[in-house]
Design goal:
2 helices, 39% strand, 4-stranded antiparallel β-sheet, mainly beta
C-alpha cells in the first residue's frame, strides 16, 4: 500500500510540474532597439598590409539625411557611449564628436589605442540617430549624402586615397 501511495504521489506531482512554467497568457516584454548608421573602410588596392600602412586614425565628416539627427548634448557635442556614438574596434576610441544642425553634419575622430596599434578595416564606428520622419530613412538616403573620411597611418601619413569608406544601417538592442 505504501508503494502504491508513493507512486500516486509521484505521478500527480509530475503532472502538476509539467503544467508549470509554460508560455502562459502573459504579455512578453520586448527588448528596446535602436537604429544606427555604421561606418566602415576597406582597402581599395589590397596593399595596406605592412606595419608602415597601419591605420592609426580615422576622421569622419558625414552629412545626415533630412529629418535625421544624432544624440547630442546641449552644446551640440555628440554623446559618446553605447547608445550614442560608439567605437566598434576594441583597440580604438572616439576622441571627439560634433554636430552642426545648420549643415546636418557630424564630425568625429577615432584613434588607435595605443596610437601604434592598427585599427584595421571593417566597421569602426556606430552612430545612433533619431528621426522626425513618419517613415524611417533608408540606406539609400544615407548613401546619397556626402561622406568625407580622412585616414592616417603612422607619423600622420595620409592613407585616405588607399581606402574606400562605406555606410550601412544596423539595428541593435539598446542597453
Amino acid at each position: 500500500m505504501k508503494f502504491y501511495l508513493r507512486f500516486q504521489f509521484v505521478v500527480v506531482t509530475s503532472l502538476f510540474l509539467a503544467g508549470c512554467g509554460g508560455g502562459g497568457g502573459g504579455t512578453s516584454v520586448s527588448q528596446p532597439t535602436s537604429t544606427a548608421v555604421v561606418y566602415s573602410i576597406s582597402d581599395i588596392f589590397g596593399n595596406l598590409t605592412s606595419a608602415s600602412s597601419s591605420i592609426s586614425g580615422i576622421q569622419v565628416t558625414s552629412t545626415l539625411p533630412r529629418g535625421v539627427s544624432p544624440n547630442v548634448t546641449a552644446g551640440r557635442i555628440l554623446r559618446i557611449g553605447n547608445s550614442d556614438l560608439k567605437s566598434l574596434k576594441g583597440n580604438a576610441g572616439i576622441q571627439f564628436g560634433t554636430y552642426s544642425a545648420t549643415t546636418n553634419q557630424v564630425t568625429f575622430l577615432v584613434t588607435a589605442n595605443p596610437i601604434t596599434a592598427n585599427i584595421g578595416f571593417g566597421e569602426f564606428a556606430r552612430l545612433t540617430y533619431t528621426t522626425t520622419l513618419s517613415t524611417p530613412p533608408t540606406l539609400a538616403d544615407f548613401r546619397a549624402q556626402p561622406l568625407l573620411v580622412k585616414v592616417s597611418g603612422p607619423n600622420a601619413v595620409d592613407l585616405s586615397g588607399k581606402v574606400a569608406a562605406e555606410v550601412g544601417l544596423t539595428t541593435y538592442i539598446s542597453p
